[in-house]
TrEMBL record:
Transmembrane annotation, as ranges: 9-30, 50-70, 123-148, 154-175, 199-224, 230-248, 260-277, 283-300
Name this polypeptide is given: Unannotated protein
One Pfam match: LPG_synthase_TM
GO CC field: plasma membrane
Length: 308
């Protein structure tokens, strides 16, 4: 079998495996809800709606930061990407993660940028780099949260060691040339976007977004009367989001994120409250995506009509 035929087959197998993992995650969450239905019911009766608004605003701040960094990537490549329009492209593209397949957040965001005048190769390169550095920052947040909270400290040590080794390998000119040779088939300008120092800088810039997401989840936890330390929540939130991202073929990591979150948070709080918190956090971040897309679109249209 040729390499060209092998790749689609591997992609289909990965997607199929992802769907199975997602279904297993959903089954785990449903089972937890059924076996802990009294605790889940009690948790939701204590839910504080006002606190959820604060959680939504923190989540919106996190996503806005990620979007803003992405718009700066486009601008630094010399392209005209007005912040108001670019943020509308970003949030509209974010809605693509709820479509099965896993590639739609990248395709949606990049294609909207292309329609806005950004050359397609650069739009895809910037979007891919945004996704990579966002989740590299999530891996870093997992390590920091693990070590500072001393929950699964071995994971933090091994994670930092792995990231350090990976960065050292990528900093090697010969190995990086081979990697960029493959990336350049998609974008001939990718070499400038993936220079090691820039990769490290963009990863660090995205770290505050994960802190904000963890704060959002902590506020949601307080709405349930649950008490989880912020550094512990940084570990739990980042780990569950990263797990949902790396499993291919599951829209928005549904089921995977919740099952990982419930398993990790269940060691600190009642499992019924943990699954309730996972579900409530999912609802909050769906609201974040919808509100962000709505507001960004209104702002972009208002700006366009004002110029006209």
């Amino acid at each position: 079998m040729s390499n060209s035929n092998r790749r689609p087959l591997l992609a289909k197998l990965a997607s199929f495996a992802g769907v199975l993992i997602g279904l297993a995650g959903v089954a785990f969450v449903v089972r937890t809800i059924l076996t802990k239905r009294e605790e889940v019911g009690d948790a939701f009766t204590e839910l504080n709606g006002v606190t959820l608004i604060a959680s939504l605003l923190l989540g919106l701040s996190a996503m806005t930061l990620i979007g803003y960094v992405w718009t700066r990537m486009l601008v630094t490549r010399g392209h005209h990407a007005p912040p108001r329009s670019a943020m509308a492209w970003y949030f509209a593209g974010q809605l693509g993660k709820y479509v099965p397949g896993g590639i739609w957040p990248i395709v949606g965001r990049a294609e909207l940028a292309t329609r806005g005048g950004v050359p397609r190769p650069d739009a895809y390169a910037a979007t891919g780099l945004s996704m990579v550095t966002t989740y590299l920052a999530a891996a870093l947040a997992i390590c920091i949260g693990s070590l500072l909270s001393w929950s699964y400290p071995l994971a933090g040590v091994l994670g930092l060691a792995g990231m350090g080794i990976g960065f050292a390998i990528f900093s090697n000119a010969g190995l990086r040339t081979k990697v960029l040779g493959m990336i350049n088939r998609v974008s001939p300008r990718a070499a400038a976007l993936t220079e090691p120092r820039r990769l490290l800088l963009l990863t660090m810039i995205h770290l505050p977004a994960w802190i904000l997401m963890s704060l959002s989840t902590s506020v949601t936890a307080s709405a349930f009367g649950a008490d989880i330390g912020i550094v512990h929540m940084l570990f739990i939130t980042s780990a569950s989001w990263l797990a949902g991202f790396v499993v291919v073929g599951v829209p928005g990591g549904i089921g995977v994120r919740e099952s990982v979150f419930t398993a990790l948070a269940g060691t600190a709080i009642n499992p019924g409250v943990a699954v309730s918190l996972a579900l409530a956090s999912r609802v909050v971040f769906i609201a974040v995506d919808l509100v962000g897309a709505l507001v960004a679109n209104i702002v972009a249209r208002t700006a366009s009509s004002t110029k006209a």
